[in-house]
Each structure stands twice: as structure tokens, then as C-alpha cells.
Design a protein that fits this description.
By secondary structure, the chain is an all-alpha fold. It has a domain at about 35-90. It has four helices and no strands. It has helices at about 10-15, 35-60, 65-85, 95-99. Helix 2 packs antiparallel against helix 3. It starts with 10 loop residues before the first helix and ends with a helix.
Length: about 100
């Protein structure tokens, strides 16, 4: 008995057909673009992380990093993130201004 060819599609083959050879989607649905705000946040976190790792490695090998550099680095990136997300940073009132 000859085998009849039936068109069977599996979910895997459907997904494979939706991606072209170049890796782009061909089904018309594209991923939403990443916002610049999100990219900057990722950049800030990566910069804070690599600095922390480098300082820890330097400390492991008995080198010291100036505390002023660490304070400045984290203050700058934290301020950038606060400005980006519109976080209001309030200063604590000093004792002199209260009395």
C-alpha cells in the first residue's frame, strides 16, 4: 500500500518557519524596541558592577583604591539614575537650620 503524504505540522516546525535564514522574524511581529532609558539603566548597572568587581580583585591582591574615587563613582552613577527616573533626592536638614 503506498504511503499517502499528509501535511502534518508540528509546533516546532511552525516556529522554525517564522524565522528566516538571517535570524529575522518573518511573521510580521517584531519585538518592541528597547527604550533608551532601559539601555542607560543597563549601562549604569554594568558600570557599577564592573567597578565593584575590580575593586574587590584589587583588594584581594593587597592594592587599595582611594575612597574618594569610590564615593565619586557611585555618587555620579546614582545621581544619573535618579535624574533619569525623576527621583527626588531630599537632603536631611542640618541641626543648625532647625534651631
Amino acid at each position: 500500500m503506498p504511503h499517502s503524504k499528509q501535511a502534518t505540522t508540528s509546533p516546532v516546525s511552525e516556529k522554525v518557519r517564522l524565522v528566516s535564514v538571517s535570524g529575522k522574524r518573518v511573521d510580521g511581529k517584531s519585538k518592541p524596541k528597547m527604550k533608551k532609558r532601559t539601555k542607560f539603566t543597563i549601562l549604569a548597572v554594568v558600570n557599577l558592577t564592573w567597578y565593584t568587581v575590580v575593586v574587590l580583585i584589587a583588594n584581594f591582591f593587597d592594592h587599595t583604591v582611594a575612597p574618594e574615587l569610590t564615593v565619586g563613582w557611585f555618587a555620579a552613577w546614582t545621581a544619573e539614575l535618579a535624574l533619569l527616573y525623576g527621583i527626588k533626592v531630599k537632603e536631611k536638614p542640618s541641626d543648625e537650620s532647625q534651631g
